[in-house]
Write a structure and sequence with these properties.
The chain is built from ten helices and 13 strands. The strands form two sheets. Strands 2, 3, 7, 8, 9, 10, 11 and 12 form an eight-stranded antiparallel β-sheet that branches. A five-stranded mixed β-sheet has the order 5-6-4-1-13, covered by helices on one side. The protein is α+β, with helices and mostly antiparallel strands and 317 residues long. Helices cover 36% and strands 24% of the residues. α1 packs across α2 (104-119) and α1 packs across α3 (126-141). The protein folds into two domains: 2-172 and 308-315, Ribosomal Protein S5, domain 2 (2-Layer Sandwich); 178-304, GHMP kinase, C-terminal domain (Alpha-Beta Plaits, 2-Layer Sandwich), CATH 3.30.70.890. The protein has helices spanning 66-80, 104-119, 126-141, 149-154, 190-195, 203-222, 225-230, 238-241, 248-257, 279-292, and strands spanning 2-7, 9-11, 20-26, 33-40, 46-51, 88-93, 157-163, 166-171, 178-183, 262-265, 272-276, 300-306, 312-315. Pathway: Amino-acid biosynthesis; L-threonine biosynthesis; L-threonine from L-aspartate: step 4/5. Its main location: cytoplasm. Catalyzes the ATP-dependent phosphorylation of L-homoserine to L-homoserine phosphate.
């Protein structure tokens, strides 16, 4: 029996639309990610049960759960290599809200595939399971992209490459950054967030996007946190998506007033992130968001650091 864990992630990070993502972990040690417990089963195939804070947000039919789809795709991949999949039971602890901008679907996908590969003695290997994770995520979002999957699996701050067989590469992140991550409790679907974007961009914004991303990557490698923070500006998605998130503009203004290095939309929303060097100011931002940004009982806010471990599986009794 194994337990697999996959952390929450923030994609895009303002400066890297579809190309950057960071795994997050609360500094207070609380759980911010999905878990899978997998065990051999007498029932043919795979059966799935769901627990956790956001279990009620998922389809009631287990066969519509992405975890079940992960089993089918993993089984097919094994069979193509002449291997046989075990019959298993998977219990998903759904701790991340769906359509939240925290990589919820990626966390379920990554945890499921990591658990499946663990119980099959790592039969597929890293490259194949990451490609499998991308394909599963693509089923949900409509296209294969790794800006949540890669940080969720590998941990850290990931730059999506997708060239010459390299899916992503780890960028150095900054130890002195505190990431305030807040889910307001409302959903913004990835498809709706993409539909609101223009079909083309003018030359000025295209150049600005490339310049900012290149500068950010350079600053990460040179350890220049001030330069990195200075280009955390979104000219691609945020100008259009901000209207989908009530209170976002006010939250960004408040963050700026107390010294935030940057405040942006996490993924396609509705979650937001705000970066600080000072923990006291990060906690002030957390208090503000809890009082003024969270809309209902589903919302939550954490002060985080980058989770450099990423997903993992461990044997349990």
């Amino acid at each position: 029996m194994y337990k697999a864990y996959a952390p929450a992630s923030a994609a895009n990070l303002s400066v890297g639309f579809d190309l950057l993502g960071a795994a997050l972990k609360p500094i207070d040690g609380s759980l911010l990610g999905d878990e899978i417990v997998i065990s051999a089963n007498d029932t043919k195939g795979c059966d799935v049960s769901v627990t956790g804070r956001f279990a009620h947000k998922l389809p009631t039919d287990p066969k519509q759960n992405i975890v079940y789809q992960a089993y089918l795709m993993y089984k097919d991949a094994l069979e193509k290599e002449g291997k046989t999949a075990l019959d298993v039971h998977m219990e998903l602890s759904k701790n991340l809200p769906v359509c939240s901008g925290l990589g919820s679907s990626a966390a379920s996908v990554v945890a499921a595939v990591v658990a499946l590969d663990a119980i099959h003695d790592n039969a597929l290997g890293e490259k194949k399971i990451v490609e499998l994770m991308g394909a599963l995520e693509g089923r949900i979002s409509g296209s294969i992209h790794y800006d949540n999957v890669a940080p969720c699996y590998y941990g850290g701050l990931q730059l999506i490459v997708e060239e010459k067989g390299i899916i992503s590469t780890t960028l150095p992140d900054f130890d002195n950054w505190y990431w305030v991550s807040c889910f307001p409790g409302i959903k913004v679907s990835t498809s709706a967030a993409r539909q609101i974007l223009p079909t083309s961009y003018d030359r000025k914004n295209t150049i600005t996007f490339g310049r900012h991303l290149a500068t950010f990557v350079h600053a990460c490698h040179t350890g220049d946190d001030k330069l990195a923070a200075s280009v955390l500006t979104d000219v691609i998605a945020e100008p259009y998506r901000a209207s989908l998130i009530p209170g976002f503009s006010e939250a960004r203004e408040y963050g700026s007033s107390i010294g935030a290095l940057a405040t942006g939309i996490s993924g396609s929303g509705s979650s937001v992130f705000s970066i600080f060097e000072d923990l006291e100011k990060a906690n002030l931002m957390k208090d503000y968001l809890e009082k003024n940004f969270i809309a209902n009982e589903d919302g939550f806010c954490h002060v985080c650091k980058v989770d450099r471990r990423g997903a993992y599986a461990q044997v349990i009794d």
